[in-house]
Amino acid sequence: MNTQQVTHELDTQSVGKAFLRYLIPSMLGMLLVAVNIVVDGVMVGNKLGASALAGIGIASPVYTLFVAMSLWIGIGGATLYSQAMGAREPHRAQTVFTYSVTIIAAATLVIGLTAMLFRDWLVLALGANGDTLPYASAYMNVMLMCGFVFTLENAISIFVRNDGNPRLSMMAQITFALSNIVINYVILYVLEQGVGAVAFGTIIAASLGLLVLTTHFFKKTNGLKLRRFPWKGSLLLTILLIGFPSFLSEVGISVFTVSHNISLEWMAGTDGVAAFSVMNYIHSIVLLSFLGMGAAVQPLISYYHGAGQEQRKRQTIRIAVWTALGAGVVLLLLAQAVTRPVVGIFGNFSESVTSYAVGGLRIFVMAYVFMGINFVMMTYYQSIGHVRMATWITLAREMILMLAFIAILPRMIGITGIWMAVPLAEAMVFLSIVIYYKKQAGAARLSSYNAGA
Questions:
Q1: CB atoms within 10 A of CB 446
Q2: What number of helices (H) and strands (E) belong to the chain?
Q3: 184-206 pLDDT per residue, tens
Q4: Residue 10's pLDDT band (boundaries 50, 70, 90)?
Q5: Which of 146, 178, 193, 357 qualifies as a cystine partner to 203, CB 3.0-4.6 A?
Q6: How far apart are CA 324 and CA 290, in angstroms?
Q7: How many CA atoms lie within 13 A of 229 on its CB side?
Q8: How many CB atoms within 10 Å of residue 14?
Q9: SS3 for 234?
């Protein structure tokens, strides 16, 4: 098969089958990444103690920054890639791929090496103290020097998915997640090494995931070919604009965590923060599942948009929205039924912590009815070039509205207001999407009527 045959498959395969072909690998891959995060934390905490775990947490913004950068350029470039393939412009698509990979590798190296010069100041600025400083420094040093491996793996995984190979992208995620668990188990429990070795183990796992992805370049169906290209500021700007909502989404996770920790410390002290930590582990799994839905939608919408296949675009987004809504309702009902046993999995907590976690989770999960739809629609608007709306969705739900509610509601209704902040923000964003979508649909109908007249 050649690139044209892959294109033909996307053109002729039913929208439902195409959606499932991308959805299942994306969801499975993201879920394994979530499991990897939880297991990794459990191993470090049990073997090296609370200070080591806290040190990794303090240095984790470096990891988060590299993830955000790989999503920013990866999603921005991959969206343009799929649009070009849909428009039957493979040469342009390959130029976008080469451009994006070059940018992500160069940017990560420059940022990492520059930050190394200020690493002592940086680790202190992130909140390290005498107990956590050695651990945070050891973890950060490895990430700054070798983080480009992880960003390349993540970005190329996005391009491979967009090039019609979601299963291989999933296999790379599985390889990364499982090998990271095995390698860090050996490092911690067999070799009895420290946090720096754990960070290096993560880089080795990312290298193995990258190795899996390279097999795509030997396939006859591969459209990801490196080309010489002239540097164009306009192309860089377009990639950055389209990918910006994905960057904001990753940054918003940190805003969500910090704002809730501060508010709960103020309202309920250590017990409240502990309860949020439990809830945040559960939320991370759900969040990555919704991200998996977005990852499934993006290649399809981008391709159909580039090919001018409006009917397939509408069918895809309709299926994705109903899938997200169904998942949200199931999660809401499930959480109400099994909240206390789920909280109990994370430890034998005091009644105060358990009460906060159970009560908070039962309120918080109301957000899931809207959150999946908001993720899907953000990806939809990002994929068709409506960057302002995609940016608004991300900014509003993770920063503007959430921070406004979390600042106001606790003063009015106590700790319940903290748990209500995210559900209310998601509901308000959903309402704004409905209004915008109807407005756009009305404008499209009017334009079609005028053209017919």
A1: 10
A2: 15, 0
A3: 889 888 888 888 888 888 889 98
A4: low
A5: 146
A6: 8
A7: 21
A8: 10
A9: helix
φ/ψ of 225, rounded to 5, equals: -115, 140
State the Cα–Cα distance between residues 300 and 314, nearest whole angstrom.
11
Burial 323-346 (b: 16+ CB within 10 A, else e): bbbebbeebeeebeeebeebbeeb
- In angstroms, the CA 399 to CA 333 distance is 27
CA-only gyration radius of the chain, Å: 22
- The number of CA neighbours under 13 Å toward the Cβ of 412 is 11
> What does the alpha-carbon distance between residue 201 and residue 195 come to, in Å, rounded to a whole number?
10
Nearest residue to 97 via CA among 229, 192, 7: 229
Cα angle, residue 110 at apex, residues 114 and 155 outer, rounded to 5°: 135
pLDDT at 1 over 80: no
For residue 182, how many C-alpha atoms fall within 13 Å in the half-sphere facing its CB? 10
DSSP for 217-235 reads: GGSTT-----------HHH
> Which CA distances in Å does 317 have to 22, 370, 380, 381?
13, 15, 7, 10
Rounded distance between C-alpha atoms, residue 164 and residue 3, angstroms: 10
pLDDT tens profile 231-274: 777 888 888 888 888 888 878 877 887 787 778 778 777 677 77
Average pLDDT over residues 172-182: 89
Q: Where are the domains of the chain?
A: 15-231, 244-443
Contact of 369 with 328, CB cutoff 8 Å: yes
CB 162 within 8 A of CB 223: no
Positive or negative: CA dihedral 136, 139, 142, 144 = negative
CB 363 within 8 Å of CB 416 = yes
Phi, psi angle pair for 429, to nearest 5°: -65, -40
Token output for 372: 């999946």
CA angle 105, 63, 236 (to 5 degrees): 35
**Tokens of residue 411, six digits:** 């003063």
Indicate the SS3 state at residue 230.
coil
Q: How far apart are the first and last CA of the chain?
A: 44
d(CA 240, CA 248): 12
- How far apart (Å, rounded) are the C-alpha atoms in residues 347 and 278? 9
